[in-house]
Design brief:
The complex is a heterodimer of chains A (462) and B (544). Chain A is α/β, with parallel strands linked by helices. Chain A folds into 3 domains: 51 residues, no CATH class; 338 residues, Alkaline Phosphatase, subunit A (3-Layer(aba) Sandwich); 52 residues. In chain A, 35% of the residues lie in helices and 11% in strands. In chain A, the strands form 4 sheets. Chain A has an 8-stranded mixed β-sheet. In chain A, helix 1 packs parallel to helix 4 and helix 14 runs parallel beside helix 15. Chain B folds into 4 domains: 159 residues, no CATH class; 173 residues, no CATH class; 50 residues, no CATH class; 91 residues, no CATH class. Helices cover 46% and strands 5% of the residues of chain B. Chain B contains 24 helices and 11 strands. Chain B has a 3-stranded antiparallel β-sheet, with no helix packed on it. Chain B has a two-stranded antiparallel sheet with strand order 1-2. In chain B, strand 6 and strand 7 form a beta hairpin. Chain B is globular and about 85 Å long. The two termini of chain B are 18 Å apart. The chains are: A alpha/beta (462), B mainly alpha (544). At the A-B interface, helix 8, strand 6, helix 10, helix 11 and helix 12 of A face strand 8, helix 17, helix 18, helix 19 and helix 22 of B.
Amino acid sequence: MNKHSEQRLLEKLAAMRGQPFSRRDLLRYSLTGAAGLMLADKFSLYALAAEELSPKTLRKPTAKSVIQVFLWGGMSHIDTWDPKPEAGSEYMGQLATAIPTNVTGFRIGELFPELAKQADKFSLIRSMTHRNNGHETAAYLMQTGHLPGERLAYPCIGAVFAHYKGYQAGYKGLIPPYVVLTQPQGRFSEAGFLGAKVKPFATGGDPNASRFEVEGVVAKGITDERQKARRTLLGDLNTLRSTMPEDSQMALSKDAEEQAYSLILGKGKDVFDLSLEKPELRDRYGRHTFGQDCLVARRLVESGVPYVTINYPGGWDTHSNHFATMRRQCPQLDRGLAALLQDLSERGLLESTIVWCCGEFGRSPKVDWQPPWNGGRNHYGNVFSVLVAGGGFKGGCVVGSSDKGEEVKDRPVYPIDLLGTIYDLAGIDTQTKLPHPEGFDAPILNPNEKGAKTAGRLTEII
Amino acid sequence: MKAYSLLAILLSLAATSKAAIDSSLPVAPTNIFETAVSVTPETKIDTLVNGQLKKLGVAPMLCSDEVFVRRIYLDVIGTLPSADEARTFLRDERLEKRRLLIDQLLARPEFADYWAMKWCDILRVKAEFPVNLWPNAAQAYHHWIKVSLRENMPYDQFVRELLTANGSNFRVGPVNFYRAVQNKTPEGIAAAVALTFMGTRVEAWTDKDQLPGMAAFFSQLSYKPTREWKEEIVYWDPNKEVQDATNAPPVRLYTTFRLPDGKRIKKIPEDKDPRELFADWLITEKNPWFTMVLVNRQWGWLLGRGIIHEVDDIRPDNPPSNPKLLAYLQKEFVNSRYDMKELMRLILNSRTYQTSSIVPRCAQLEKIEANFGFYPLRRLDAEVLIDAINRVTDTSDLYTSAIPEPFTFIPENTPAIALPDGSITSSFLELFGRSARATGQATERVNKISPTQKMHLLNSGHIQRKITTSPKIKKLLTGNAKKDTERFSEILDEIYLMTLSRYPTPEERETTRAYVKKGGAKGSDVWYDVIWALINSDEFLFRH
């Protein structure tokens, strides 16, 4: 390869990845090194480099934080983000209307008028699929990207972030790197084999209450002065520790206590104080637990917390009483999410913050009018919808489609594809082996494991 | 308060004079955690342990009665002694009162609850992910384990029933052993059997024929559904054809039955379930793995560390720290006809079990620990900790499980140690590291203290509410303790006995008196703060 053609190749490669591409980079992508490069056929090298240029290896990380809104129980896709008015009432039941959004040709369910105004900021995946209809197993799939039948209990994505974006990666916040608002999922050990140190910190309390009492951080009715007096008392009465201060367990206990107090008595806890926000903004998020959860999530991300999960404060497992539940919960979801996207965007945080929202599966697209369901929808993992926004995800796009909400029509998206894209955007290499305590081979994601499916990263929206 | 351990003194003396390491040295203890009096006679265990410790220049000291009463309750029944129970023991002047208390506790109903909890960790009793037993099956399994322990079923029978049971997962508890395995291939089951009953990890096996040979014994094990939702029959199907676990063609039957000791079984009688052959091989006294793993586990549970460490990682290159001790315990276990309570009694009555926790930092610390020169500090198990806090405050936590249906509601006032299922929802138990019960490895339970745990203990509404709404504490705090010195002492003694199972020291009395008189809070709050401080003290949080 002569100098001139090499220069042209470098330019093309640079255009592909959106940043300069040096000769050194080129050498890295030549399998045989410098000698090979001399002999390499220009086009095969180009193809090789293009393949290697998948975002996972070269894309500059755009996401610093993630806010995951998890809709436990599995939210119906056909009533919300994949409406099919043409499918008729057998499918649509009482929610038959799709409404336009601020993006031409992009329509969503009638219960989401606020999100409709923010459609330019998010994209919808309408072809999410894993074909698993069990709550725990499907939740495991959606949160880990691994099949539930494997022997190892993998950590969920939040725990993986806690590990790679937490304290060992230079995170210095007093608030743990992985926060759950407000109750933990707890249906499987979310930290998996990574263990206690990456477990989420669950706040407890209710951010919509007059004071958000974060369990362990903000105590009810105890002044800072009394906190300090109690701390001194504890020190004076801690006779075992003063008898053997150099014991390793005692030292651990002392360290843990000091860290806890730096949050309890320090300024760090102000991040949970929603009275510091303007009342109008709090109204915009909606004066309900979910809306205020979203506001706290924004404040956490603003202070640098890498991963926040909001477990929707209410279930979506609507086997019966389906439409009433949708009419009650969707408007809150709509309002909170829309305000979150708008607020993040106005503060310039959306560029560096991924927001994603879905349940463990969707719900059967045909309404079940038989007793005891009387107009309910059942578990449905064949196809369902996911909302993604920010941190490198484009807005205003729709990925894939379903037929009548029953099967994927085009572009299936599997859990590995979705989680893999999120990891890519955050600069976490999914081939990295997680530190398994017994040294088992456990990559973050493994498309080669038996039964695993992938249709590729979501390159169309990043 | 200034305190030096006798052990520390001995260690420093040992440097200058060999004669100094004589345990009969008349040195008075300088702290409330130790005693210089030989209240417990030396046993064979102690002779074997001390033989090693002497080489390290260590002569351990016994724990005080105050420490003993708390330790023995927590270790034998997973339950904090009440103020009355602690007081009764401390006042008891009988020489053999430690031995008597041990006997009493081994007969308590909580014994079965607590030890069932321990066994449920390694037998993986969990309704949901990842072993997915299903609630009714988890409860049947737990019930069988608990009753077996309550009736003190001999260990060989316990293991044989687990390994050879047939029947419904809802009705025959022990069949769930074979369902509580994530990888239900013959190899996966063999791995679970090896971990649970042989204390060995198949990943570490170097002989590559060993696992398939052992798997053959489980290759005719079958599962079939019934017409009842989630019911499953576990049974022996002599005609079962099994695929290789790797799923690679060619499909083959398991025909080579090879026991882990290398012995091949040429012909399995047609009317014999191969699981029975395996079980009968396993549970003989000649089998090196059988008694070794159990006595080692039991020792580890009580002493904080196995003679072989980790307790489920037995292999030739991981030798016991004290082979004679291990052999002695195995021999006694066989002589007692596999009596698990007798084995505990033997260990609990030793001076070794009753040593102090106080140990100075020194170069030999690791060796001293591996040779049981002190009782190591361990944070209370998650379940034991919340039960202890509930017992102090006479409050309870309500345990439920909303997924999957049928929902599980545990009756109010059920202690956490008695929960029949590892998937019962509880953020406290999650936070404090209860076992995930995914693989059955002992390390799945994590008792390491963390900042978020401390935040919860120091400052959560959950704990604070228990203290301030406790009717028991409210009742205790009647009378004007600020002016009435006698009333002050009564209240303080009671608080100390119900939290730390001992009376306060003079220094502690002074500290609390000063705080109650003009502390950072008003009214009952000062007392709440004292109780709060004691619950947050390391003496409360750690087994010591």
